[in-house]
Amino acid sequence: MKQLGKYFTALASAVATATLLSACGGGDAGAPFSPTASTGYAVDGYLDGSSIKCDASGVVVKTDSAGFFRFPEGCDSTLTLTGGTNVDTKLSFTGTLRAPAGSKMVTPLTTLLAGGMTQSQVNASLGLPEDTDLTNTDPALTSAGTLVNPDLFKKTLAVQQLLLQTTEAMAAFAGDSTDATRQAIYSEVAASFAAGMKSGAKLNATSTTVNLAVLKTLVTDAGTRLAASTLVPTSVKTAIGTVRADTFAEVISGGMKAQAEVLLTMANSDVTSVTTAQQTDTKVKTAVTATSMSEILKLAPDNSDVTDKAKALTDSITGMGGMGTGTGTGTTLVTFDEATAPTLTGFGGAEDSTVVADPAGGTNKVAKVVKSVTAELWAGTTVSTGANQSIATIPFTATAKTMTVRVWSPTANIPVRLKVEDASDNTKTVETEATTTVANAWETLTFNFATQASGTAALNLANTYNKASIFFNFGTTGAAGGGGTFYFDDVTFLP
User: Fold this and answer.
1) What does the alpha-carbon distance between residue 138 and residue 150 come to, in Å, rounded to a whole number?
2) Domain residue spans in the chain?
3) Kindly report the CA angle at 260 between 239 and 216, in degrees rounded to 5?
4) H-helix or E-strand containing 157?
């Protein structure tokens, strides 16, 4: 990091000069030893005015407007950060970040390290390069206005989003959202996430998607931990203990996954605006404090009332009145609840494609796709609402290249490909993929067309894209086990 590099170069020079003077007889032989200062940066975006405590000595210092901190007398123990303001988003930081001894960074990811994870475990869980040094690499560093470590920064912000939203939901449900309570809850949530991820759970299914099944388990474990914790107010412990932790997780995890994936797929130039939108969104905590939720959260997670609430929250975030990328409301291109039902055209062994009632219950309609045992590896379904198998033109721009689709798959960890093209010219296409993370349950997949599927054409903003086709378990034939019954709903463009 440039800033640290400058400081430590100067420090090394000073030490060398002092050593030379001593060797030549210079200096005061009786002068007291001056310890080496400990320095670093606090990052959730750079944090200004945060209090950072050296846990062993109890000494507290403040970060400056660049997120920089310095312990003049040094600190050889763990660090704990509270308070402060993000210099970019201008939002107050209300959690508790930690870092292991010797760390030059204090971030949500070093908080996982302080919770007992190794760097290799964090890197593996998030899909970061195995040699990423989380204690010395500045995720927010820029050079000439460009992010140096964009993947690390986006994954840092995504983890923070999950920790923050879990904390806010738990605090709101307990009726205590004071700073002290949220800091205590955040610490327990982060420690619980670290314990769960340490076991080898991969939170990131891909570089741009979150594993919903893993997230549900992490949130469930966090709720269980809070209900037994002696480190949070009794009122919080009691409130969380009155409901099912797995049901709490069922309701909020889909929405949080969608928020995190917006951060993972955002353009580098949009980091500040998108992060601000995600961190200020209150949909998750509002969902758990709605009328009757205290009773609904006592039901089994597969109860239809619970799954309806989970779907409603996820839909509100991914497009049905949701926040999109933070710059506007998502545009739902196909809902399957239109007055005139969309047309489904299957091919390659997916000809059995129909509009049906939601298999999870409710009155809404969804698309059902049966990929036969004789299906080709490229079997798929085109959905259309207009002539020539068209839909409304997808308004891609230089900064808006993402779509979402709600899917239901009998199998987790399978690729789902989404292809869009010009309905009047099939040579103008772009394709990308996402991976399912749960089986026999709805989840929202995010398709980032800025990253096209291998061997396919890149997105061309000069083209018209007004036709869409979806391919379940793309690349595997029905004979090879790639068949089954799949569902999809709410094809949405995120501006």
Assistant:
1) 10
2) 2-34, 107-131+148-318, 331-494
3) 45
4) helix 150-174
Token couple for 49:
């005015």
- Kindly indicate whether the domain formed by 331-494 is annotated with CATH number 2.60.120.430: yes
Separation of alpha carbons 326 and 484, rounded Å: 36
- pLDDT band at 330, cuts 50/70/90? low
- Which residue type is seen at 370? V
- Radius of gyration of the CA atoms of the chain, in A: 25
Average pLDDT of the residues of the chain? 89
Q: What is the pLDDT of residue 319?
A: 56
SS3 content of the chain, % helix, strand, coil (to 5): 35, 25, 40
H helix or E strand, kind and range, residue 110: helix 108-114
- Report the pLDDT value the prediction gives residue 495, as an integer from 0 to 100: 76
Average pLDDT estimate for 404-411: 93
Enter the pTM of the model.
0.66
Cα(123)–Cα(112) distance, rounded to whole angstroms? 11
Sign of CA dihedral 138, 141, 146, 148: negative
